[in-house]
Structure formats: C-alpha cells, structure tokens
Input
Amino acid sequence: MSDRVAIIGGGHNGLVAAALLARSGREVVVLEARGDLGGLASTREVIPGHRVDLGHHDLGMFRRSLIDELELVRHGLELIEAPAVASVPAVGDSGAVVLWPEPGRTADGLAAFGSRDAAAWPRFVAELAARAAALEPLLCRPAELADMGRLLIAPELLRFMSAPLEELLGEWFETRALAAGLCGLALPATALGPRANGTGWPLLYHCALGAAERLAPVVRARGGAAGLTGALAASAGASGAVLRTGAVVARILVNERRAGGVQLADGERIEAGAVISTATPAATFLDLIGAPQLEPRFVRRLQAVKYRGTSARLALSLDDLPRFRGLERPALTGRIVLARDPDDIERAADAAKYGRLPERPWMEAALPTALDPPLAPAGRHLLLATAHHLPFHVEGGWASAGPELLDRMLTELEGWAPGVRGRIREHALLLPADYESQYRATGGGLHHGEMNPGQSLWLRPTARAWAGEPLPVEGLWLGGAGCHPGGGLTGLPGRTAAVSLLRG
Output
C-alpha cells in the first residue's frame, strides 16, 4: 500500500494537514483546482493594484500552537492585532458603540448609554469566557460521544448553545446597538436571525477559539489572508510536500470501500494509501465518490446538511478613509457592524427565507488598509463590505439581483459613512453564487455548512459521528470546515484530520 497521502484542496486546512504530515515523514501531494492556493482564505487583485481578501481574513481564531509547530513566522507570517474588536457607528442622536479587547475600556465607553450596561459588560465577558473555556477542549480534538455527557451536566453552557442570541443578550444589556454588535460577531456563520433558537452557539464558538479572558481579537496577516496561506505553503514545501495548482480532482478512487487515490479531470491517476478531502461533505461524497457507492441512509443525511451561503462581498477602492459616524481611527481597525439593532439582522434573515433581497442589507465592514496600508496603492484605501443573510436562490436570479444588491449596499454604506460614494474609484462584487462556482463551496456557504447546534460537535457533518460510526470509505478523512469543529480560520479541521490519520 502506498505511503502517499493525497490532499484535495489547497486552502488553509489542506495546507495545515500537508505541513503536519510532511513533517512526520509522510509523502504528501496537495491538489488544488484553482491556479493559486488559499481557497476561501485567498487574496487576489480583483481591483488592479489592490490585494483583496475574498473569503475569511480574520486570524483571531487561528491556533497559536500551529503557528509555533509549523514555524510559520520563520516562513514569512507576520500578524497584526487590531486595537478594536468591533464597533457600531453612531445612529441619530445615539453615540457609537466600540468593543475593545480590554473589558474596562469598553465599559467606560458604555457608560454614555447608562450605568447598567457599563456595569454588566465586565461580568458578561467573564461569564462568556468561562463558558468558552469549558467548550474549547471539545473543539480542539475529534468529537467524542462522551462529550455529549459533559455538556448535559453543564446546563448554563447548554442553554447558551441552544437559546436565541437576542434573548440571551437582552438579559444583560439595554443598548440595542451593543446587542447588534455582538450579533454581528456571531451570526455571519448561520442563515438564522438573532431570534432563532441556537444562535447563541456561534458566539460561543467564536469566543472559545479566540482569546481566553476577553472577546476574540481581530488579527490580520500582513499582506492579507495570503500571508497565512503563503507561510503554510512554505512550511509544507520545506518538509517535502508537493503542492500542485490547476489540478482538478474529478473523483476519489474507491475499491471495495477503501480509498486508493484520486483521478484528475485530465485523466491522470494519483495512487495514495490515504486521502484527505477539504471539500464540502456534499462535494466529497456525492460528487467525488458518488451516491451509488454509499449507503442510502448516509446519502439522506448528507442531503439534509444545510449550507445556505448568505454572504456577498463588495470591495471598494477609496481615495480616502471613510468617515463612519462617531468612530475615530483606532475603532476603524476592527469589525464595523452596520446594523442599528438585532431587528435589522432579523428582517434580513426573514427576507432571505422567501428568496428576497433585504430592503436594508446589514453589513460587516472592514478597512484592512487601516492596519496594512500596502494592500492598496499609495493614496488609496480598501473597504470590504460583506452583506450577510442573503438568499442563495434569489428571486429572478443573481444576474438581475446583483446590480440591485450593489445599489442597496452602497445606499446603506452612505447612510453610515456620509460621503463614501463620492470617494469610490473602483469596485468589485462577489455574490453568493460566485462562492459556489469559483470555490466549490456548496450552496455558497463559506463555512461548508451552517454553524448551528444541529450541525456542530458530534453532529458535524451528520449524526453519524455521534453514533460512533466510521466514514463509509476506509482510508478517507474529512479535513475541511464542513467537519468538526467547523468554519473560520482556525486550522483545526486540517490538524484533526492529520493527527487522526497518523494515529491510524
């Protein structure tokens, strides 16, 4: 049997797995369909001269242990931590809300909205950190049946995972913009609005994989997300991994329920004793293996996984920093949540249920050049505005809905940052359907499956993991965001796949 490991996908999880396996002495080949590495953590010049992150770009949850183990700093990774975590610009007579890494500093700012919220903030952060600390070990290892028992004896943790996020926040805070900011940290990982059960889970996940005693910080790689993938590729290559781009995997070779390699679209066959797929579970099993080779019950479980890509990213080249109401420059370095209150997010989620665009899209804005000016030419700034809770299947199709969404996004941005439309020199818009067609993200889902309690821990990607059953193909491992623990730039799915493979 070949000692080679074939890894499908050259995103950050595939590169983490490749680097770990190559360092252990395994022969590794990474097969990336696109012409460049990175996948949903890639940086491209969709606007000439501007380095634009098209998918994930916040490294606040990336495992520091992997940075050390893979010597990523030596291979060129440089991290920049933003002074701010998140902010909501001023609305009307209300001031702006800014969440800083330091609880005391945030509380001082909240005092302008009332003493109750200012006093509650440090206690909220401390309780959230305690819940996150209990969850973090479960996320950093393969899901086990015993983990369910540990959660069942932690009722407060279980309630935070299963309750509506707006309800949980309402028990602590009166300021609606503050609640909107916290919803903006959590809800991009799901199509659910803040009043839906289970929406406390993504906030808990975000914090569990971020910082131990504070909100997860915003961390960027110098040069964009490509700074991370470039360092990962250099680490893997230095240990002997072969990294191939333009290598489209057409199918996983299976003989008597065992993976024996892959076949590329041009007919080339690559034999391997093990295969790690970082594609979505649907693409891995239904497209690359095929339903006829799988048990009908397993196919039904796969077909029930909810992907529902809900995001569109607008990149704007500006001739100056925009002036968001009530925000000074340090606050512009974190996430800028453009929602007045959780109702804005709920209305967007409601519209998406019926295939409609929201009248007022809620967005998460970022100004990467506020931290890393060379991402744009001298004298220019780059603004990334990501609209969330959009329908993947939109009324009339994206050919007609795309221009309408662009106009609504620009109108909304103008309301939060007056004069921004006059500063725009060039733009590029990536729609939900583009994430599926260009990055093979099933349903346009950036997390390879919604991050809700029904698709997390031992239930990710299906309840098969909870039942303790192995995958239906021996020698095949899942290593992408569609498996445990989930999406975001963490490196954990790739690490878990590599460790599990090495343990046999």
